[in-house]
Amino acid sequence: MLSMGYEHWCLDSYTIYDHSYQFTGHKEKLAKGGYTIFSNYAVLSEKQWENCKLKILLIGGSTTSVILGSTWGKRLYELLKEHRDDVCILNGGCGSFNSFCEYMKLQRDITTIKPTHVISLSGVNDSIVGTDISHGFFSRLVNPLTRGELFDHYNSPIYLGTRADRWIEEAKHMKGLCDLYEINFRRYLQPAVGIGSSSLQDLKSPLRDMVEDAIEIIGQNYLQRLNDFYSDVKSLTLEDYIHDITECLEDESDHWSDARHPSDMGYSIISKIVYDELIESL
Fold first, then answer.
1. Which helix (H) or strand (E) holds 11?
2. CB count, 10 Å around CB of 277?
3. Spacing of C-alpha 185 from chain mean position
4. Which of the residues 65, 147, 148, 182 has an alpha carbon 20 to 30 A from that of 269?
5. To 10 degrees, the CA torsion angle through 214, 218, 220, 223?
C-alpha cells in the first residue's frame, strides 16, 4: 500500500517543511541503520564527515529519504566503501519534496556542507503538482493562511511553462550553483510504475494494483499526469548532467514496494547505476 508518510514534520523557512529529526522515533530508526544526524541530513560516515575527501549530498523525495524507507543512498555508500574509506553521504531527501524544494534546500546548505558531489533522484513528485504551486503540502499549509485572518490571498506566479519545463529549469539552477563552487552535480529522472502506460489495462497485476492504490490517494487522473510529465521531459534535449533511468527497473513486482517507491532490490539497481557513473568522475 502506498505510504505518503505524512507524520512528524518540522517547519522550515526555506523548503516550508522537512522531516523532524528531533522526533525520538526518527532518531532511533536512523541510529539502528548506522546513521548520525547533522541538521536535517542523515549521515553515513566512518569518520568525522567534515573531514572526508569524498562528500556526497543526496537530495530528492521519499525515494531518497531514509525515514521513508529508501536504501539507494546506503547501497551507494556500501559500494564506495569497498574502494575507499574517506567517503561520507549526507542524505537530505524528504517525503513529498519536488524539484523546487530540492533547489531551496541545496542553495541554503551548499556552502555549509561543502560537498564534492550533489546527486538528485527526482521526477515523480513533480508529476503530480501544477506549475502554480511549489510542493505537495501546498494546500495543507497555504490555504488556511489565506482566509483573510492573516493574508488576503495567494499570489499566483507568472510562470508560463509546464511542470517539465520547471523541472529542467530548476536542474539548471542547481547545476549552476554547483558549478559556482566547483561541485560535481548530476540528476536522475527516476522510474515509476505506469510510465508509458496509457491505462491500467496496460499493466499486469500486481503492478496494476499498485497504481490503483496510488490513484486512490492522489486522484483519478494520476496516470495521465504521470505520463504527461515524463513524456514532456523525455521530449526535451537533456543536458549531460541529467540521466534518464526510467527504464532501469523491469515491470516486475519484486522491483517495487508500491507504484512510486522501488523495493530494496530496485534501489540496489539504482545505486549501481549511480555508482558506475560516479566512479568515472573520481
1. strand 9-12
2. 14
3. 14
4. 182
5. -60
SS3 53: coil
How far is the CA of 264 from the CAs of 35, 133, 142, 158, 253, in angstroms? 18, 32, 35, 41, 12
Cα–Cα distance, 46 to 34 (Å, whole number) = 10
Spatial contact of 117 and 55, defined as CB atoms under 8 Å apart: yes
pLDDT digits (tens, 9 = 90+) for 208-223: 999 999 999 888 899 9
The CA distances from residue 275 to 82, 101, 213, 267, 278, in Å, are 12, 24, 32, 12, 5
The continuous run of DSSP H or E covering 42 comes out as strand 41-45
Contacts of 240 (CB under 8 A, 6+ apart): none
Torsion angle defined by CA atoms of residues 200, 204, 207 and 208, in that order, rounded to the nearest 10 degrees: 30
For 219-276, the pLDDT digits (tens) are 889 999 999 999 999 999 999 999 999 999 988 889 999 999 999 999 999 999 999 9
Q: How far apart, in Å, are the Cα atoms of 203 and each of 102, 158, 208, 256?
A: 31, 38, 5, 14
